[in-house]
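Hi U.,

Before I forget, here's the chain from the pilot set. I'm dumping it here mostly so it's searchable later in email.
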Amino acid sequence: MRWQNATVSKIVRRSPTVSSFFFRLPEFIPFVAGQHVSVRLTAPDGYRAQRSYSIASAPEETGHVELAIEKLKDGEVSPFFHEVVEVGDEIEVSEPIGGYFVWPADDKGPLLLIAGGSGVAPFISMARHKLLSGSNVPLLLLFSARTRGDLLYHDELAHIVGGKIGFDLMATLTRETAPPPGMLKGRIDAAMIGEALRRLPAPPLQVYVCGSNPFVENAAQLVVDAGVAPGLVATERYGI
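Structure:
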C-alpha cells in the first residue's frame, strides 16, 4: 500500500453529523469513480488506527480528494476528524483502492444507484464524473436519509438533474412525516424499487448499493426480488 502525507485544505459541513474533508496530495493519483482510500492516524505512542472512506470528488477534479466522513458515536477515527482535525493538518492517505464497486463513464448503462445516508459518497463521485465527462449513460439515484438535513449533496444533485444529462433522483426520508414536495416518505421498499426501475429507459446493466450493513442487505434483496439478476448487483458497506 502506497501512502502520502496529505494536507487538509478545506472542511465543509454537509449535515449535523457529516463533513467533507478535502485533501491536497503531494502527488495526485488517478482513480475511478466509486473507489475509496484509507486514512491512517498515528498516536504519539505509536498506536495506529485506520479506516476507509469512499472518494466523493470526481476523477476529473485533480486538485484534491474529497472524503465525506460521518461522525459515529463509537468510532475510533471519525470523532478525531470532527473534533480535532483542522485546515492545514497533515493526514496519511493511501492510494485509491477497489476495482469492484466502480464506474468509468465509458461503461454502458442504464445504472441504478441506491444510497443510505453517507453511503451516497461514491455516487456523488459518479454523478460528478458523469457531468464532467459528458457521458450520456442514464443514471438514477434512489437516496434514503433520515431527514431533509441528512440528504447530503441534495442541492448539487438536484442541479445535476436540472441539467438534463440523463441523471434522475428519487429521495425518501425515513423520519419525517411530511417530507418536502417531490420527496418520498419511509424506508426503501418494493414499491420504490419498482418505481425506480420504471423510470429508467431500460433495465439496468448494473445496480450499486451503498450504506450500512442492514440497509444494503434489505435494498439488494428488494432489487433481486424485483427481477434484477444478482450478478448485476454490487454492494458496499460502511462502518466505524
